[in-house]
Specification:
Elements (H helix, E strand, L loop, with lengths): L2 H20 L9 H15 L6 H13 L4 H25 L4 H26 L7 H10 L1 H32 L3 H12 L1
Helix pairs in contact: 1-2, 1-3, 2-3, 2-4, 2-7, 4-5, 5-6, 5-7, 7-8
């Protein structure tokens, strides 16, 4: 891994993630979960502190978007940290960024976010009755958001990992190691 390129790429996707959160977008169609997965899979190889990268991006964008109920906000932030841990686990057990592993990790992160944040809304907001049916109503009302969460997480995960793998392969080829680049791209596709 070329460290200079990696840091520039990571800084670029952090800035991109912040900007996308500030621009008009479909509900929950943001790159923060993809950034968390990227931090878990790649950035954690440099330092485990990079697992906090998505939280920093959230905090900076929340300075502009606005803060909300602190307990619910803490659950949202914790869910993104958990998604970074999903990325770390994927790397530890699969050892490379395979397409099906990243897809499963993105869907798992989306479902984790949906379940934890809507549980927090039910528990802390007072919008729903403190009963099991109130919890189920909270989950039911959030289904349209789940659709956009899944689509956004899959799209941005493909964008971040695909761009990184392509750029890494290109830089490797440029240095005269064509076979290594080809193997890297082929491993990503399988």
């Amino acid at each position: 891994m070329n460290k200079k390129f990696f840091f520039v790429f990571l800084a670029g996707i952090v800035i991109f993630s912040i900007v996308v959160r500030l621009l008009p977008h479909a509900p929950n169609f943001t790159p923060i979960a993809a950034l968390a997965l990227f931090a878990g899979v790649y950035a954690s190889q440099v330092s485990k502190w990079y697992l906090f990268t998505p939280l920093g991006a959230m905090l900076v964008s929340d300075l502009f978007v606005g803060f909300y109920e602190p307990k619910t906000m803490a659950v949202v932030y914790a869910s993104f940290f958990a998604i970074a841990l999903i990325g770390l686990l994927a790397r530890m057990f699969v050892f490379e960024a395979k397409l099906q592993t990243l897809g499963l990790a993105a869907v798992s992160g989306s479902l984790l976010f949906y379940l934890t944040t809507n549980f927090a809304v039910w528990l802390f907001s007072g919008m729903y009755a403190s009963t099991f049916s109130g919890l189920m109503l909270s989950y039911t009302m959030a289904l349209p958001f789940l659709k956009f969460t899944l689509l956004g997480d899959l799209f941005y995960t493909a964008l971040f990992f695909g761009t990184y793998e392509f750029a890494t392969a290109f830089l490797t080829k440029k240095k005269g190691r064509h076979k290594a680049a080809f193997d890297r791209v082929t491993a990503f596709r399988s």
